[in-house]
Amino acid sequence: MDLKYRALQQDLKTQILSGIYREGDLLPSEKDLSESHRVTRNTVRQALSGLEQEGYIRKMKGKGSIVIRHHKHTLGVLSVKGFTEILSEKKLNVETIVLDPPVIRSWPVPFFYPLDDIESSAGCVYLKRIRCAEHNPVMLESTYIPDLNLPGFCKKKLIEGSLFKTLNINYGVEITHTSQDLRAIAADPESAGHLRLSPGTPLLHIYLRFSTNREHLNIYSSLLCNTENYSIGNKL
Amino acid sequence: MDLKYRALQQDLKTQILSGIYREGDLLPSEKDLSESHRVTRNTVRQALSGLEQEGYIRKMKGKGSIVIRHHKHTLGVLSVKGFTEILSEKKLNVETIVLDPPVIRSWPVPFFYPLDDIESSAGCVYLKRIRCAEHNPVMLESTYIPDLNLPGFCKKKLIEGSLFKTLNINYGVEITHTSQDLRAIAADPESAGHLRLSPGTPLLHIYLRFSTNREHLNIYSSLLCNTENYSIGNKL
DNA sequence: GAGTGGTCTAGACCACCTG
DNA sequence: AGGTGGTCTAGACCACTCG
Questions:
Q1: Global pTM?
Q2: Model confidence over B163-181: pLDDT tens digits?
Q3: How close, in Å, is residue A41 to chain B by CA atoms?
Q4: What is the pLDDT of residues B24-70, one digit of tens each?
Q5: Contact, B200 vs A148, CB < 8 A?
Q6: Cβ of A71: how many Cβ atoms within 10 Å?
Q7: CA-to-CA distance for B31 and B144, rounded, in angstroms?
Q8: Which ranges constitute the DSSP H helices of chain A?
Q9: Where would I find the beta strands (DSSP E) of chain A?
Q10: pLDDT by residue (tens digit) across B89-147?
Q11: Residue B165 and residue B115: Cα distance in Å, rounded?
């Protein structure tokens, strides 16, 4: 598994993040990239589409691919990514505090996404974490995963604190799709306490569903975000 | 301008919305579509990518492209679309109430997006509207457009109530990119009144910037959304 | 006019899913 | 085993931007 377009995409991303290409710079043309990386222009275009989707560049007809300014104080595009990956790319100090370590329990009723029979009848791995940026709690994340062929998951530590990395390395799970659902709600007392806010403070509530390469093994997350200092988006 | 992939994408979308393909149905395979529409598979894939992005289908390796269930009570993917288009696709009853008809004024200071010199020195076309779904106000939208070569814009009526359609048909403006920024905030008294809510109710605040095919002509919108009954997202 | 990205063709091999 | 989508190649023509 080392796809050419992903390799090129990661190459360019690294160069942008390391400052080789700066805001406003033009990337090499698609023709140049295709020659220097020995791939066709279609493959280059696939890589550049990915970068555009992630908010690193902007493609301009007749001109080229422009590197885009990175906004501080934005948590990143809502995309097929985990929290750790999003914020470490922004070079923010990131911490995760585990409130409830992984346990097997029954599914909450009602659950925020409809579950299929196989998911329902399997148990549910649950964990709850606080995400901090620059030492401030900004996000409260409750995660639910069907307990389908994940032996010993609750006993092991998360690799580098990342759920996705752990699932990938230990169990070969890869994220394939994401869907999301957004609302604004008032903070309940418990959540407010965790986020060091007053109850009733408006929070961004995001329900996420990550599909994976394993059928029925979907990852569900409920995120409560304090958007006072860090907004969510792909502001360019 | 009639691109083959766009034509195919629209074709399939119409068939899905009209019920020819229902939730869970498989679309014809990429090979079949390429033969029946006399285009290559790459072109078919471009069209299907668009439909996937818009949340109409889900592509499954080895299986096919599955038509996805439409959730009621979701306002639609945040995408390169106007409000009118999003909700009419969902077959909801949609109304727009113009609070402040288009006028030329100076830019608010500070403005929520950085403006370039040409935008700043041009005037600013401003309008404010309430969006209703099923006769309930759900969204308060303030729109700002640089007054760059849009003769008579403030005097004319909007075509079918759609800002994008008006800009497109009368001035040849097409949307090319979108960026967005999300926060949760408490409703101020004025906004609360318009949305028939109590002040302090949590609202989803979305800043949008639409880039167009005309340089410097960007469309800026500030949206306040009541997400109590209609959430925002691409829940599948 | 030279270079760019946008679109499109006509093939190919692969991994994955299902019967 | 046969069909599906995922990836990739090697070309082509176009509209657009810029000097």
A1: 0.82
A2: 887 887 788 787 777 777 8
A3: 13
A4: 889 999 999 999 999 999 999 999 998 888 778 888 889 999 998 66
A5: no
A6: 17
A7: 45
A8: 4-17, 30-36, 41-53, 83-89, 117-121, 163-171, 189-195
A9: 57-60, 64-67, 94-105, 124-133, 136-146, 175-186, 202-212, 219-225, 232-233
A10: 666 677 889 999 999 999 998 888 888 878 888 889 999 999 888 888 999 999 999 99
A11: 24
Contact: B234, A179; criterion CB under 8 Å = yes
Q: Pick from B182, B203, B232: which is nearest to A231 by CB?
A: B182
Q: Which residues of B touch A203 (CB under 8 A)?
A: 184, 202
Q: Which of A168-172, B73-77, B103-107 has the highest mean pLDDT?
A: B103-107
> A181, A198, A234: which to substitute to probe chain B, counting the most B Cβ within 10 Å?
A181
How many residues in total does chain A contain? Answer: 236
Check residue A58 and give its pLDDT.
Answer: 87
Nearest to A195 by CA among A144, A134, A132, A102: A132
Nearest-5° Cα angle at A3, B80 to B45: 40
What CA–CA distance (Å, rounded) separates A236 from B209?
A: 9
